């Protein structure tokens, strides 16, 4: 009996190890070819935890199978570092840095236009928050403006952010006549050039902005990658899977999976497009925004490329940025040229949107030479 239980234990160890390795490898597989792999990143923390438990189990028993989860954990170590950090770099006195700039990225969900929060003051609270933390550059996703409502007019918003003398605002191509949603980058530093990167068959897009910061020109990419477009019913179905309630019919999940599959394919293609622009930039780059994907994904791996991740360099914990009914994963990012250094990464859990804002201080400490 003891021999049989040991055999089962070894088999389970192999299975959880293989599970982690497959998830780790999935970041190199384009979902356009094999869409199934796009979903695996959400299970990475679970797979990592199971292998850690298996390692402890075999270490306590001092048995050779401990090598199985150990090797799996080592293979997945780069993805674990992207997912979790014990502590990050801090600079108590930012003014001692050579060329510091603070950058905030925030998906504001159209400034709560439809009052999803149940409050009527989200717009003003958002501006108060930005004024209080006072970043040098602010990148908005789902920025919204309309001339039908004075409070949501572009002039009103610009006046509320008057500390930013430079701005780059672009809107979606849409038939919506009441208002416009899009991307906006507000800067205290001069903007030299503006451009838009649009994708086929979607309202999601990116903008690139060349900014001169104390003698250093950077190209900043503000991105809103393909949304999952899950509605209230979709979220309720996912909630049933998580709970003991279960699905009434297995077919309920099919439309949700189709949406996830479609969005993952589009994000992969969009990431490839952005990467080409990043690689061709004549200046060091900063890439930020709502990627709508986890750190263990093809989208993240492609977008990051040779860049550093502000969370990895200066963050702490899991850093989940989604603020909603689904589990919180890190889906909002600030990536940057390797010649820069990151300090004081923060994710503020303010209830102003279905995303949490992310901010970091970058020290543009080296020469204006693009890192590779």
Gyration radius (Cα, Å) is 22 Å
CATH architectural group of the largest domain = 4-Layer Sandwich
Total count of helical runs of at least 4 residues = 11
* Total beta strands: 12
- The level 1 CATH classification of the largest domain is Alpha Beta
Give the spatial strand order of the biggest sheet.
Answer: 3-4-2-1-12-11
What does it look like?
This protein is of the alpha+beta class and 372 residues long. It has 2 domains: 82 residues, no CATH class; 270 residues, Deoxyribonuclease I, Chain A (4-Layer Sandwich). It is built from 11 helices and 12 strands. The chain starts with a helix and ends in a 9-residue tail after the last strand.
Task: Quickly list its features.
single chain; 372 residues; alpha+beta; Deoxyribonuclease I, Chain A; 2 domains; six-stranded mixed sheet; 11 helices; 12 strands; 22% strand; globular
Topology readout:
Layout: H1 2-26, H2 44-61, H3 67-75, H4 77-83, E1 100-107, H5 109-112, H6 122-133, E2 137-145, H7 154-160, E3 166-171, E4 180-187, E5 191-198, E6 205-213, E7 216-224, H8 232-242, H9 254-279, E8 285-290, H10 298-304, E9 308-309, H11 310-314, E10 332-336, E11 341-347, E12 358-363
Parallel strand pairs: 1-2, 7-8
Antiparallel strand pairs: 1-12, 2-4, 3-4, 5-6, 6-7, 8-10, 9-10, 11-12
What is this structure, in a nutshell?
With 372 residues, the protein is an alpha+beta fold. It has helices at residues 2-26, 44-61, 67-75, 77-83, 109-112, 122-133, 154-160, 232-242, 254-279, 298-304, 310-314, and strands spanning 100-107, 137-145, 166-171, 180-187, 191-198, 205-213, 216-224, 285-290, 308-309, 332-336, 341-347, 358-363. 35% of the residues lie in helices and 22% in strands.
């Amino acid at each position: 009996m003891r021999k049989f239980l040991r055999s089962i234990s070894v088999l389970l160890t192999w299975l959880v190890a293989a599970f982690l390795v497959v998830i780790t490898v999935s970041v190199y597989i384009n979902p356009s070819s094999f869409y199934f792999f796009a979903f695996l990143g959400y299970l990475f923390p679970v797979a990592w935890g199971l292998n850690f438990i298996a390692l402890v189990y075999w270490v306590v028993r001092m048995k050779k199978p401990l090598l199985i989860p150990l090797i799996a954990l080592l293979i997945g170590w780069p993805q674990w570092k992207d997912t979790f950090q014990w502590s990050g770099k801090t600079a108590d006195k930012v003014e001692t840095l050579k060329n510091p700039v603070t950058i905030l990225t925030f998906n504001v969900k159209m400034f709560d236009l439809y009052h999803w929060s149940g409050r009527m003051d989200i717009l003003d609270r958002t501006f108060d928050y930005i004024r209080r933390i006072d970043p040098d550059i602010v990148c908005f996703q789902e920025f919204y403006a309309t001339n039908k409502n004075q409070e949501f007019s572009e002039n009103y918003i610009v006046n509320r952010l008057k500390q930013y003398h430079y701005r780059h605002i672009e809107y979606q191509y849409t038939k919506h006549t009441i208002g416009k949603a899009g991307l906006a980058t507000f800067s205290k530093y001069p903007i030299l050039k503006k451009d838009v990167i649009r994708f086929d068959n979607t309202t999601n897009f990116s903008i690139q902005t060349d900014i001169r910061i104390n003698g250093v020109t950077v190209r900043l990419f503000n991105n809103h990658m393909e949304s999952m477009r899950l509605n209230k019913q979709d979220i309720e179905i996912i909630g049933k899977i998580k709970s003991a309630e279960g699905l009434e019919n297995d077919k309920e999940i099919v439309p949700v999976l189709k949406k996830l599959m479609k969005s993952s394919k589009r994000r992969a293609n969009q990431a490839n497009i952005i990467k080409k622009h990043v690689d061709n930039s004549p200046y060091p780059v900063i890439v930020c925004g709502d990627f709508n994907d986890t750190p263990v994904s093809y989208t993240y791996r492609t977008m990051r490329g040779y860049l550093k991740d502000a969370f990895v360099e200066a963050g702490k914990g899991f850093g989940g940025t989604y603020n909603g009914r689904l589990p919180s994963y890190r889906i909002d990012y600030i990536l940057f040229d390797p010649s820069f250094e990151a300090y004081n990464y923060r994710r503020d859990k303010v209830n102003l949107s279905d995303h949490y804002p992310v901010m970091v201080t970058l020290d543009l400490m080296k020469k204006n030479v693009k890192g590779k």
